[in-house]
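User: Structure tokens for both sequences below?

Assistant:
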Amino acid sequence: MLKTVVKKGSYHDSVVLMLLTNQISTIEGVNKVSIMMATPANKDIFKQSGLDTEELMESTANDMVVVADVNDDSLLDTIMTEVDEFFKKQSTANEGKKGAESVKSWDKALAKMPDADLAVISIPGAYAALEADRALDEGMNVFMFSDNVSIEDEKSLKEKAHKKGLAVMGPDCGTSIIQGVPVAFTNNVTPGSIGIIGASGTGIQELTTIIDRLGEGVKNAIGTGGRDLSKEVGGITMLDMIDAMEGDDSVKVLIVISKPPAKEVREKISARLSVFKKPVITLFLGEKPEYHEENFYHTYTLDEAARLAVSLVRGEEVKEGEVEVDKSEFYPAEAKKTIKAYYSGGTLAGEAAMLIKEALDMKVPPQKAEGFMLNTDGHIVVDLGDDVYTQGKPHPMIDPAKRIECMREAMDDASTGVVLLDIMLGYGSHEDMAGALLPAIEELQEKAKAEGRKIFFVATVCGTRRDYQGYDEAVNKMKAAGVIVCETNKLAVRTAIQAIGLDFTEPKKEIRPKQAADVTPGTPSEKLLKMLSEKPKIINIGLKSFAEVAEQFGCEAVQYDWMPPAGGNVELIKTLNFLRNYEGFDIDEANRAVIAKVVASQPVIKNVVLAKTVIKELNEGKVILHAGPPIEYKNMPDPVQGSCVGAVLFEEWADNEADARKLLESGEVKFIPCHHVKAVGPMGGITSANMAVFVVENVTDGNEAYCTMNEGIGKVLRFGAYSEEVVERLRWMRDILGPTLGRAIQELGGINVNPLVAKAIAMGDEFHQRNIAASLAFLKEVAPVITKLEMDEKDRYDVIKFLSDTDQFFLNIMMASGKAVMDGARTLTEGTIVTAMCRNGVEFGIRIAGMGDEWFTGPVNVPQGLYFTGYDGEDACPDMGDSAITETFGVGGMAMIAAPAVTRFVGAGGYEDALRTSTEMTEITIDRNPNFIVPNWNFQGICLGIDARLVVEKGITPVINTGIAHKIAGYGQIGAGTVHPPVECFEKAVAAYAKKLGFTL
């Protein structure tokens, strides 16, 4: 039976998950298991394995999914315990490591290392090209370990790099050495005067390790990716690097290697190399040159190329190595024995296939398919690193399982005389591949002996004596087990061929005069010359081990803990890239201008008046304002409809609930969003003509905003209550509280809001769920004036008592202030800063500066938090209210860290969670507000400027502190917590803005 566990928002690298999958697959009762991120490509792999489930298909690229075929349900608990322990061990293993500093975005990475010049990318191919494009825009060279990148994207990236004077190494580039610094799957090679450019990975490793063991060194070995010399790409990176290597005075000899190139590209490369000013060696795999030219040498094997390069550096011939083996035991050709060769990479496998075909005198090479470089008459050469074997599974350099499986299959063929294999040492490879393979080799040797068969195991170890696995240790382990170990791949293949009674010949080459082509060399860019002459400064996007190795070699590195941007939606990623690179004007500058207006704003409480005196629309018949984006009465949730009933009773449009509901359902009452008339309203947001509202003016921009007054706690209109008690309180607020405060505020000439906020935030308010300090500061301002007003003493007492008792009183002032400030800011009509957030109990809506009054909506969520006794999530109404304007302004949930006393109440857990929450909010905001300093946040300002692009890119939505209303009108507040907007609001806004600026997919 198939069981699925989805870990939402838990991103891990594919290599790590492959190793985890291998571990889980050993649990008894687990028939089949796959653990991957739910990217579109991985979903296809799940399907191919028969492991696709409904839960999997509903998951996103940021979700880790475990799908297991198990015999017993209870095994799922065992599996997940193992998974948790695996990651715990990984985390523990990394503790205390110096390691590259980790960040979670491009912006943070560039802030840490503004002079970074190399991006190392090892993420899923669907996203690698997009990140490479970003790196090029930032002026960085690119090393793309990632595969599954389209050839169209590769060409586009390389053309862009060429124009910018940069290089793209890859995609599917496994190896490079830059200024002695190993990149990706690379060996610890001595620096020296030999340069290498290779459209192969294991080929570069073989060359560099032979050179190292011969006592010379390599300064730069640049991988281009296997398709660089294809007809479609045209050798762009190869040609640029040839120019750069020629301009690098420290390179004395150059080696250029490639898997079989396209004919026209090979001719172009050869023509350029014919006018190279230094000795150059070529190796085009599959070609068998018969001569050299002066300072232009043409080789047949990697062994020959490496030895010739060392000979040229030293000025003396370096002889070929020898193999210690008793050849008298070998089979004669008449025995018709076959070779089974299992390789880690395509270049060594290709070389083996080439030499075996020559020994077999095969005139027409067979086509490569399913990873086979050769599959004829029982002879097999397989590239186990081919995509067909590695999709969703560890690479054979990491995991011995597939090779062991293949060797066992080889034993089932009676014709098998030789099993040939490579063992790759170095960074990224298995810590002891020799030791991991030995038990299987010894088992098969015993099996062959028991059957009276003779099978030779022949191996080559690709590595240096500085590789952490230990070259001599690996060689000695193999030899001790009776394996014939050869120092190069050519020698290993020749030994395997001789073991079945065959051989091949290598011509003795004469040196002819060089035929220089009519080619004008390109001028190497300063950036490429710099790359070849200085240690790279790396932003590592993907596998952490790549950054850790670079640091061991004295290289500066920043680890970008990448997750698929925009939830893995490629169209949205392209949209974000368009906005980032938009040339019409600087969107970042537009955003900074918007928040500059916020910082410069001066909200002042001017008065408390009847709503109809400042909102003209309330005088046009029966009109009710509501919170959130537009909604019809019939679609409002029950608490909001209850608030509407209360407003009808308050306005005396009906004198009972039944008639009130009948009126509301008749269509006679017009509903307008508060935001459409410069107002905001808490929870239901219901505001009618004769309700008292605060008037707040943003004196900087001269605009006003309005909000009803806070009703206190208990049964209140904003939570859907509409009893006589509720209506009477509203009338008291209209007749007594409002006029009293209005007179006091006017007596004071208005009250500046910013000083109250600055004081209160330092006293532990965040201005959405905790307003006690600000409410008392407000009371401190108005109380002396109220005591002098001519009014009824009981009314005076009632007003002051109400203000003293209502801890949340300042919230509505903060809302009106936020509205006034953000409306002032959005008079600037470009950019992606969020200028409003609100909800109506059904939809969540946002506005951004560049789209003016347009709403972008998505389904509203139910808050998560703590409930009053007797209630739980089943009782809760989806979130509602305009109070999220506070978060838009940078307070509320965005400033959670300012209010430690409230963090548990809203379900955040405690100080550490509050710190984590506010820190996370800095990921989606572009600045801080210096007006409002948070003492327990190291005296930093609150977050400011929610950038819709960052929300979409990172999948982090603003956190909003909120009250929780009962889903049935009349019950009122049943708890408090936090809620997040649906990310689709921001996705729609970003897509619409890009379209406005001319973007099309």
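Moving on to the next sequence.
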Amino acid sequence: MTDETEATDGGSDTAAGADDLALDPWGSSTVSDYRKLFEEFGIEEFEEVLPGVPDPHYLMRRGVIFGHREYDRVARAMANDEPFAALSGFMPTGDPHIGHKLVFDELIWHQEQGGDTYGLIADLEAHSARGISWEEIDEHARNYLLSLIALGFDPEEGELYRQADNTEVRDLAFELGSKANFSEFQAIYGFGGDTSISHMQSVVTQMADILYPQLAEPKPTVIPVGPDQDPHVRFARDLAARLRYFGITEAFASFEVDPDERGLLSRAYEALSRDGSADDGSDEPPRCEDAADWLETNQQESPVRESVVGKLRAAGKEPLRPRVRFLDRNATDEAFEALIEAVEGDKRVFDEHVDSFDLSRPEAEELAREIEIDHGGYGFMLPSSIYHRFMTGLTGGKMSSSIPASHISLLDDPEEGYEKVKAATTGGRETAELQRELGGEADDCPVYELYAYLLAGDDDEFATRVYDECVGGERLCGGCKEQAAELMREFLTEHQEKREEAEEILEDLDVELEAERRGVPGDEH
């Protein structure tokens, strides 16, 4: 299990990412090589957790959902029928299109698996970051909610809200803002002196959105997003850890070490414990000075080694003993005293931490969260996330709301959707003869993506057959596009009929569809 205090994915040091791969939540990010996300941002490959996901969604099975952060927590909760949640938001800057349907489907699937599910309209973000007027926001918000409900979201079992109307989210954003500073906004988002305060407020509001499902009860929570939203996820994980009363780490002595130093200490301890370090052959634990000698003999010289050796020399004959450490981060005096009382067995109490020699790491995390909640804290778990691939635009390149021919709106007339697919770029060869000889390039084909992401639905056999026929030269682009266009027309017809049915459901919900706000329309920031 990831260290909830020490390994929260960055903060100001790493959240901005590497120079050659920037993720901009408000830009036009595309990712040409998804492998870089694993290397440079610590996103993990989804296929590693896929075997533990009960009845996985077809987007998971087909690799469209390619990455995650700690989704194994959510999968375990799902498999064990334990509480979990899913939340994602939609910035109402235009009509919902088939790219947005990926997130709609992910939310709906998690709801069907028993999760507490939340869909939000990021209206504060749209107004502050994109300068969208409140009148436009109202119109687009309604369309997003109608499509989400039409696709299967059950608002009676889940929750839909607008940022501007959720006082609990705004109150939580205020608390989170006390743990953030401007230098982080600069490092993570590139904000500068000309960035409006409202834009910065919208960011901490998004952090509050991400943690909102845990206000009533801490639980594993997944945020399904595109990889361009990863900076928000990492920042939210950092802020969630900063609000915790106690940090939980593993230690070997009374002094503090960072994760790299802890790794060296662990190696030294395991080697000395295996070989025996006491001169008289007794079972006494190794001493800090013994570990310093071992590291100087067996580990290459480095700043980390020298740092650890210095701390070990200063500790002298203090025994090295594995322990779980409770670090006092934000605890009240009463909460800290309650923790001391609650830690049973062999322990040592210091001014700012408590060491337990009997508790396991999971037991310590559960106890710390229990004490925190009992004394008025949040007890947040670090939110998890899953990441889906961007859909290629029908004209090639990025699918963009500002380029009508590149995407299919969920509001498009079915005949218009048919024509857009018929006019789409393909991964076909220059001639039918070459296509039969060499096969098509399905992996670079926007039309095949339509099958894999949407048109084949839950039918993996159909999606595989289309792929194999294409790369095998049996399927030509004309017939393939005709079939896809007809399926798209059918989908849009059915979806828009269900949108009409959703109108009545939406009217009965406690969601404000018309913002009563004064002031000038937003400007671009």
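User: Anything stand out in the second?

Assistant: The chain has three domains: 40-244+382-388, 248-374, 404-507.
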